[in-house]
């Protein structure tokens, strides 16, 4: 890939940052919340190289590794006497800003904001150090208006935000159907309507949109309102896997505190193992965390199908991130980026090897 400066990315990023919407998975409420929460470390536990590690994530199911890891104390256990301070975000730019400013050290985030953040900083601010989740994105439509894929032409389809992960995926899919849409305005053979996930169900009920390409649990909320899943995005990817959530770290924190980064990764790997071994308990734990963060738990009719559609894994599925970047370039939302160096998977592979698991690949996008 060339190292051309991502001018369109900066322009799009500026537009996105000005909107109280979402750049990744799903969002509710304010853009960010400093929870002021610190996990209780055992009084006699040994501290690592810092007293506290500041962790950020989103209050949604695609970030359940963080939700469950904090809720069940699995992350804190690996950190010993080093306390966790959590902050939650509902917009990718907010989390990237927090990482850049040092307000958080490590974060769970989607691929588009990771790519945008990395390219905007000329590759000097973050590294992706692990995967966390795959899948959980669907095209849900009004079955009275859209009965087949060809019926999508001429309809109004919502995505969470201009240039976000789902927006890019829909634009790419539209292009593959042979239809044309102006990426920035959303006008064309399909009307792409950028709508905050928290109001998408109401927009669907009012008839102002005919469907939405959205992550969980918004997709299952639309189904609960009578929508029909026309397409699961996983069906468009090899092995039905594509990255929806990564773990990022600031480069300075990774350099200065590798022991803390390794401990968080160990906690993440063990949390994903626990989630996959105890899906019902993990689902309940994640929903309890969501209730504490948002004041409202997800009802079973939304939670159950949403949970089933997300896969929790440690592999960052690096090749799919590269493909997602190419889709953004193709859509005209991104100049060809240089993503080499965006990954540093050495700490994760060290943890995986110690756990007796297979190491993962950076698809040629790792640090030298």
Q: Which terms summarize this structure?
A:
alpha/beta; 7-stranded mixed sheet; 14 helices; 18% strand; 368 residues; globular; single chain
Condensed summary:
The protein is an alpha/beta fold and 368 residues long.
Could you characterize what this model shows?
By secondary structure, the protein is an alpha/beta fold. 39% of the residues lie in helices and 18% in strands. It has 14 helices and 12 strands. It has helices at residues 7-17, 64-71, 74-79, 92-101, 111-120, 165-176, 200-206, 218-224, 251-256, 258-277, 279-294, 300-308, 318-331, 346-354, and strands at 32-38, 52-57, 83-89, 106-109, 126-135, 137-141, 156-159, 191-194, 211-215, 228-232, 243-250, 310-312. A 7-stranded mixed sheet has the order 1-3-2-4-11-5-12, with helices on both faces. A 5-stranded mixed sheet has the order 8-7-9-6-10, with helices on both faces. Strand 7, helix 6 and strand 8 form a beta-alpha-beta unit. Helix 2 packs across helix 10, helix 2 (64-71) packs across helix 11 (279-294) and helix 10 (258-277) crosses helix 14. It is globular. The chain starts with 6 loop residues before the first helix and ends in a 14-residue tail after the last helix.
């Amino acid at each position: 890939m060339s190292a051309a400066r991502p001018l369109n990315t900066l322009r799009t990023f500026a537009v996105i940052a000005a909107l109280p919407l979402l750049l990744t998975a799903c969002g509710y409420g304010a853009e960010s919340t400093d929870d002021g929460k610190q996990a209780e470390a055992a009084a006699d536990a040994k501290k690592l190289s810092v007293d506290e590690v500041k962790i950020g994530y989103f209050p949604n199911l695609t970030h359940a590794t963080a939700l469950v890891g904090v809720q069940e104390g699995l992350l804190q256990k690996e950190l010993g006497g080093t306390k966790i301070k959590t902050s939650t975000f509902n917009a990718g730019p907010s989390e990237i800003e927090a990482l850049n400013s040092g307000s958080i050290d490590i974060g769970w985030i989607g691929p588009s904001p990771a790519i945008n953040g990395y390219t905007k900083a000329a590759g000097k601010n973050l590294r992706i150090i692990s995967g966390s989740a795959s899948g959980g994105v669907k095209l849900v439509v009004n079955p009275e208006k859209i009965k087949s894929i060809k019926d999508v032409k001429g309809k109004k389809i919502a995505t969470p935000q201009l240039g976000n992960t789902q927006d890019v995926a829909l634009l790419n899919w539209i292009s593959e159907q042979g239809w044309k849409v102006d990426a920035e305005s959303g006008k064309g053979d399909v009307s792409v309507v950028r709508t905050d996930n928290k109001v998408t169900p109401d927009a669907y009920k009012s008839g102002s949109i005919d469907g939405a390409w959205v992550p969980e649990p918004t997709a299952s909320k639309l189904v609960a309102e009578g929508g029909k899943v026309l397409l699961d995005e996983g069906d468009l990817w090899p092995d039905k896997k594509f990255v929806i959530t990564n773990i990022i770290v600031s480069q300075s924190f990774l350099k200065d505190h590798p022991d803390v980064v390794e401990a968080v990764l160990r906690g993440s790997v063990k949390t994903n193992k626990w989630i996959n071994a105890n899906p019902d308990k993990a689902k309940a734990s994640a929903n309890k965390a969501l209730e504490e963060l948002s004041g409202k738990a997800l009802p079973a009719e939304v939670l159950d199908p949403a949970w089933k559609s997300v896969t929790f894994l440690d592999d960052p599925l690096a090749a799919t991130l590269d493909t997602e970047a190419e889709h953004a370039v193709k859509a005209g939302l991104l100049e060809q980026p240089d993503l080499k160096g965006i990954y540093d998977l050495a700490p994760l592979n060290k943890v995986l090897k110690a756990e007796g698991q297979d190491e993962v690949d950076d698809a040629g996008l790792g640090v030298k």
